[in-house]
Amino acid sequence: MDSIKAPRGTRDVLGDESWKWARVLDVTRGVADDFGFKEVMLPIFEHTELFSRGIGDTTDVVEKEMYTFIDKGDRSITLRPELTASMVRAYLEHDMRHLSQPLKLWGWGPMFRYERPQKGRYRQFAQIDFETLGASNPLADVEIIDSSMEIYRRLGLSNLQVLINSVGCPKCRPAYRDTLKAYFESSAHELCDSCRGRLDRNPLRILDCKQPACRALTDNAPSVIDSLCDECREHFATVTQGLERLGANVKLDNRLVRGLDYYTKTAYEILSGDLGAQNAVCGGGRYDNLAEAIGGPHVPGVGFASGVERIVITMEAQGAYLGNEPKPDVYVISSVQDGTYDAAVIAHELRESGLSADMDFMGRSIKSQMKIASQNGAKFVCVIGDSEAASGTAGVKNMATGEQETVPRGSVVENIKNKIS
Ligand code: AMP
Known about the structure:
Blueprint: H1 18-35, E1 38-39, E2 45-47, H2 48-54, H3 60-64, E3 67-70, E4 76-79, H4 84-93, E5 103-112, E6 124-133, H5 138-154, E7 160-166, H6 173-185, H7 193-201, H8 212-219, H9 230-245, E8 250-252, E9 264-272, E10 280-286, H10 290-293, E11 301-307, H11 308-318, E12 330-334, H12 342-352, E13 357-359, H13 366-375, E14 380-384, H14 386-391, E15 393-398, E16 404-408, H15 412-420
Parallel strand pairs: 1-5, 7-8, 12-13, 12-14
Antiparallel strand pairs: 2-4, 3-4, 5-6, 6-11, 7-9, 9-10, 10-11, 14-15, 15-16
Helix pairs in contact: 1-5, 5-9
The chain binds adenosine monophosphate.
Adenosine monophosphate binds near residues 115, 121, 122, 283 and 309.
């Protein structure tokens, strides 16, 4: 029988990588605290309608990429492809608009999209997600963009490019759609098959296409900035000026429309020069109509999501500090495996005293245990060989200096604690 493998597009994050994730999340949590974002933990599956109404029926995510199934109660359920719609759902469900506004929420966890897997693109991936709900002030957009950049700054990332655009609002977007449609219709035969389909349904998405022929056409496409209404134009000006005042290096990109329909006004993306084809490390923007789209009142919102795998890949590629791989303070070595609990008791006492400790369970020779202690990066070993067991003592060795001494069994913990501090 063939052995069972993890499904395509998923990956096991093992012990040699998970501590890097811990650093990303620690730094993120620090930024969230410093900016006043509260952590929330939301369900991994939601009613399908939340995404079809929220994200938009004509988006790739909803049309092609959702993991949807009928549960045993005959409900259509979808594994969340992103977190923003769930955040807004939770905000509405818990009546948060009656609390002091805005609500600044953050969360992280696995998302699911049926995409073609490649490096940096998976079917299950983790996102960090920050959302400011209830504020239409453009300075909230500035703060969201700044908070994402602050995470990367604290992680020591470089070679990042922030792209920003405005995608207008329901007042000015229809006119832009028409202008764009008229522009692309005259060269429809040059568009790829998908974009020809988008021409009627969602011409803005053509701007996002990576096919060379479509890209060439979009070079001269009318700019959305020229079609913005006064409100959107002022909003965008405040956002860009605000970012400038913070010293943020951002670039205007008129082609940036993003894959999700709910964006209004600000849209932004952060690209990493060290990611290859899947180079977006962060995407976000304003979504003032999402709450209404999912059946709630008008609630303005702005947020971003960033892929944890892509952050870790970028950190590795740039040699950024990845945190410390956990290593034991002490490895307890014993030649007397059966009939005595010495090693287990010493390990227990060390842990109780606040140190980390590990020991052997495989009946290995002292020499092999010493080798494992060294491989595991233990700072000290505590050895109870036959003679130490007989005399009620233990050997303590500093692995960095090679210094060793024999100490009474009862003072092992104190001895090592003193040396470590
Ligand atoms: P989006 O929700 O599409 O705006 O994506 C936000 C961020 O999530 C992107 O910038 C990526 O960092 C990450 N991301 C999106 N899709 C994937 C995927 N399939 N695999 C890994 N990371 C992803």
